[in-house]
Design goal:
Layout: H1 3-26, E1 30-31, E2 37-40, H2 47-53, E3 58-61, E4 64-68, H3 72-83, E5 89-97, E6 102-110, H4 115-131, E7 137-144, H5 147-151, H6 154-158, H7 160-168, H8 171-178, H9 183-188, H10 195-202, H11 207-222, E8 227-231, E9 241-250, E10 258-264, E11 268-275
Parallel strand pairs: 1-5, 7-8
Antiparallel strand pairs: 2-4, 3-4, 5-6, 6-11, 7-9, 9-10, 10-11
Helix pairs in contact: 7-8
Domain Class II Histidinyl-tRNA synthetase (HisRS)-like catalytic core: 18-271
GO molecular function: ATP phosphoribosyltransferase activity; catalytic activity, acting on a protein
Enzyme class: transferase
């Protein structure tokens, strides 16, 4: 790439970022910009902070722990708590760093338990991806992050091999690990397209979870996402997710272009981030 092309690419990226912030500020979102370097007190690390630490670039200095931001939602939640920020809707943009990658994210957060307001944010993000970025969303995956927490014990959930086999959908290995008669094994014995009906019929205590998933599925179908399906066996990508979780894929991509879900902050909230 020559210097002229590189300059045009940089200008395009900056214009695109400004377009995102202007667009959502015009829709009533407060904007937030935080330092990429976060400071922690070892004695006050939350469970979510501890869960993210293995993926962070971190160092210690003069008794404090410092890390590069690896997740926007976690950083915003901590900022809101520290400074008692009362904004209901927040838009942001900026980099996140993990041990193996750097991504630039645009994102939206809403701090309300109102499901209509949460689904409106999802609709607005989908509309932005399609209309402003000209990206077609071909697949959406909906999951409920408390489903497996209901079917597995805390010990089973914490076991790395159990989580690995579930992620790989390795039924045979998982059956040896937790037992052939385990409800998760029973669920995995059915095709993915039939698992929601199986849960509703044989696990009535999880009916509410399926109904919640169906609601969010219907929203994405209305937004003309080509293929929308529910994943009964998804493990949360972040420990702070407590309810519905969503991944959006563009055509022929194996990594989601956008992902998010419901979490506690300390009450119900919803956020979705777009990877640029």
């Amino acid at each position: 790439m020559n210097s002229t092309s590189l300059s045009k690419s940089i200008l395009h990226q900056k214009h695109q970022e400004l377009d995102f912030l202007h667009h959502f500020h015009g829709l009533g979102y407060d904007l937030i910009d935080l330092s990429a370097i976060e400071q922690f007190d070892w004695t006050k690390l939350s469970e979510d902070d501890l869960g993210l630490m293995n993926e962070r670039h971190k160092w210690q200095h003069e008794g404090f722990l410092f890390a590069l931001r690896s997740d926007w939602t976690n950083a915003i939640v901590r900022y809101r708590k520290k400074y008692q920020l009362d904004a209901e809707k927040i838009a942001y943009s900026g980099p996140v760093y993990t041990l193996n990658s750097e991504k630039h994210q645009y994102g939206l957060e809403t701090f309300t338990s109102d499901i209509d307001k949460q689904t409106k944010i999802l609709k607005q993000m989908v509309h932005y991806i399609k209309e402003h970025l000209s990206i077609t969303l071909s697949v959406a995956v909906i999951s409920h992050n408390t489903l497996l927490k209901t079917l597995l014990s805390e010990k089973e959930l914490a076991d790395e091999l159990t989580r690995k086999f579930i992620k790989e959908r390795n039924r045979d290995a998982l059956a040896i690990k937790i037992g052939e008669k385990h409800p998760v094994i029973e669920l995995m014995s059915h095709p993915a397209a039939e698992q929601a009906n199986y849960v509703k019929e044989h696990m009535p205590h999880l009916k509410r979870h399926i109904e919640e998933m169906n609601l969010w599925e219907s929203i994405l179908i209305e937004e003309n996402v080509s293929y929308v399906y529910g994943d009964m066996l998804a493990l949360p990508s972040q420990t702070y997710y407590k309810g519905i979780s969503i991944q959006l894929y563009s055509e022929d991509k194996v990594e989601p272009i956008a992902s998010g879900g419901q979490y506690s902050s300390p009450t119900n909230a919803f956020g979705i981030g777009l990877n640029i």
